[in-house]
Amino acid sequence: MSKGEPISEKLHIAIIMDGNGRWAAGRGLPRTMGHRAGIEAVRRTLKAARDLPISHLTLYSFSSENWRRPLMEIEELMQLLRFYLRSELATMHKEGIRIKIIGDRKKLPPDIVDLITHAEELTQDNKLLTLTLALSYGGRQEITAAARGLAKAVERGQLKADAIDEHVLQSFLFTGGTPDPDLVIRTSGEKRISNFLLWQSAYAEFIFTDVLWPDFAGKHLEEAITEFRGRDRRYGATAEQV
């Protein structure tokens, strides 16, 4: 049975969670402590999102480029992911939150893939909020994979090349079936999107905050939504046409 009721005119907010390392360094702590503090920020943000006009929350959790980090740091991040999925799943399911994962799962440890599959299957009918975690994810890799999928479909005779348009291509993305983000937030003061949701963010609004991710809280999310609501989204049209 579905949990929660979908509410119209809610937002899809995507967050590039940045600043864990700098947060730790500023306190004389190892980077791993910054990542652990980042988990608490995820909890706070998800809790706040449940009470805000948000239908989808997408978190950039581990990029395809993050595999280049030191092995010990990667192992710590994978362990934190295991802990989060195991400790939070029952609560999220009870509250009606749907969990989705996007990215290249082939690079993830098999036990984490099993945890992901279980979480997605258990929560697939939940309606209150969709939480998408971008893991082993890169926007260019996603578009490349979509192009490869389209080519295979044409090769098999399942699709005609001249039938490919934006909507068809979008259906081959990891995010197929998910609305594009309305707002992308990046913490820590950096002003770049770092290969995140390149296709999907074509008309998203962006907010760059100096707040480091471990310090991010519900008030920051509310402030971002307030700023977003004050912007004039034209989608390429003039003010008179909107």
β-sheet strand percentage: 15-25%
Supply the CATH superfamily name.
Decaprenyl diphosphate synthase-like
Tally of DSSP β-strands: 6
Strand order within the widest beta sheet: 3-4-2-1-5-6
Count of separate structural domains = 1
Low-confidence stretches: 1-8
SS field, number of helical segments: 7
Helix content: 40-55%
The biggest beta sheet reads: 6 strands, parallel
| Cα gyration radius (Å) | 18 Å
Please state the second-level CATH architecture: 3-Layer(aba) Sandwich
- CATH structural fold name: Undecaprenyl pyrophosphate synthetase
How far apart lie the N and C ends?
40 Å
Give, in order, the helices and strands.
EHHEHEHEHHEEH
Main structural class: alpha/beta
Mean pLDDT, all residues = 93
Question: Which characteristics define this entry?
Answer:
single chain, 242 residues, alpha/beta, Undecaprenyl pyrophosphate synthetase, six-stranded parallel β-sheet, 7 helices, 16% strand, globular, disordered N terminus
